[in-house]
Specification:
The chain is an alpha/beta fold. The protein has 14 helices and eleven strands.
Length: 359
Amino acid sequence: MLRRQKTHEEILIVLILILDQERYRDTINMFLKDNTLYDCLSQNNQLVMIDENFSIWDVFDIFTDQNLDDALFWNSDICHYDGIFTHTDLVKIVLYFYKCNDILLIQKASKTIDEMVLSLKTKTVKQWLYLVKDDTLYQSSSLVRSKSDEQLNETCHKMIDNSVNRTIVVDPEVQITLGTIQQKDIIVFLIKGFTQYFAKEKQQGISQHQLEIMHYYQGTFTKPYPIYYVIQSEPLHTCFEYMISRDKVSAMPIVNEQLQYVGSIHKRDLLFIMKNRQYQMLSQTVYEFYSYLNHQKSQIQAYQFLTEEIYTYQDTVKDVVEKLVLSSSGLLVCLNDDRTIKHIITVQILLEFLLNEQQ
């Protein structure tokens, strides 16, 4: 069957869109190069260090009480920190003591809730690190350091290359740790760039803000990003296992038996279980936990300002950035007419696009 050749007008439109996309990237990269990590570092950024001799139970209490995203762990033997704890590490710990994998060479952990809690209370951070020192699945998150005068552009590349979503910010002169920066922090800071660096675009006709994201899928989103999800009837611990081992993601979309989108769960949502001591939920279905989660979040005022984690092809890149910032999971889905998932976009994918790292 012969394919219709594009007209000169259609070819011209495609070329203009490609030029607009490249110009958009150039402008964003200029903003990232003109600003450093220190510019992006929040004045309220809190740096928390946890001694390796603390029990894992104490670490969970600190994370839930202080609503932390991460904490450095302090090695008293060398009088310095030598690692970082994140929500990923907390999920790994709970999964390990809840349901130990048969391929591990070390002694299996009990599957009962009572013995899991006992292990969390009696095992220290140092003992945990020793237990999993030879198992890559359960090892602690990689520690990436960056100087505070480093360009944001360089930092973004570093995080993508090392497959991490945060970096430790260090003062280059006195080597003092100033805090941590996550990919989402950079995206939030990037909103400032939309105002500063695109203001002159309005004088040139259509602003790049008005370019719909569908044009980027047609021309530049060439990397085959997978569609991943968990079915709502699966056990909750399976959902967390998918996040850390199968898909290696921070949040997981939930679908029903017809593969229609229901919502999403983030690794940090595990803290609701730990805070309220609802450990039995690990064996309940994903949907039961999701319903419980929505009830808990409805009582927290901050969650009322979060947006629905859905975007459309008619949204601009700026729209998508703002929705990602206001999402609780750092994940957005684009749906087909039957509400099945068409595309998934995360902060990592967005940064890869803006930095042209999709090859």
